[in-house]
Amino acid sequence: MTESDGAEFAARYGPWAVIAGASEGIGAALADELGALGLNVVLIARNGALLEEVASGVRDRHGVRTQVVVQDLTAADASTRIAAATADLEVGLLVYNAGASDRTTPFLRNELEYSLHQVALDCIGPLALTHHFGPAMCDRGRGGIVIVASLACLAGSATLAVYSAVKAFQHTFAEGLWAELRPHGVDVCCTPLGMTYTPALARMGVEYDPQTQMRSEDVAAEIIANVGSGPTFVVGENNRAVAQQVWTIDRRTLVEMMSAASTEFAESRDR
């Protein structure tokens, strides 16, 4: 973005942005992108030490204000606590980036609590925070809400049954919000991602492959450049091509294809 584009962005989506899931990877890169555009940032995640490190870097590089909220987004009172922590801030942008998958395991082999945790993180979390921050944006007639999803939303998939389901919720929820909030001047965009090389992926034992994976920094830049490109903007040129092709396939074939790919990935990790 040019300097004038950055000023326009800050005027539309500032002065504060809230990033849920900001301790590393894409979330940290999003904080840096927004700081470079002159927005102050609220960083939310469970790991306070990592959040402070991200916040310090954004402040030092861009001279903006930062606020850290150490919060488990699956807690029943998460939205209440976040609302209290940000009560004196004018939040013009909400980016819900939490909810990466750390398992590729058949549903019945997972503990029920693990699956319910995914529902809380990926469904209840963005719903509750949107319900809190959305009204003020509508009243001001400007703002943005971004829900960072996954191409797993395209269809159900073996070994990712709950993950693909909650990402489908995010996709459909964001599209409905886009239709509702657009007349009030609030942009809503779901940004499904393909495989992105993050610390979470590295912890799963996956090595970086430039042919199939994007970098967190490139993903973050593309998301921020397309806040107004809703209701859905698939991140990555190759991912957009894949999504366009997939959306023309009948559902049974699509589920079989997605399941084969996820099963192969799970088996490769076990070798």
Automatic annotation (TrEMBL):
Would you tell me the protein name for this molecule? Answer: Short-chain dehydrogenase
Q: Which organism is it from?
A: Mycolicibacterium flavescens
Q: Spell out the molecular function terms from Gene Ontology.
A: oxidoreductase activity
Q: Which PANTHER family does the entry mention?
A: RH59310P
What's the family? Belongs to the short-chain dehydrogenases/reductases (SDR) family.
Which superkingdom does the taxonomy of this entry point to?
Answer: Bacteria
Q: State the UniProt keywords alphabetically.
A: Oxidoreductase
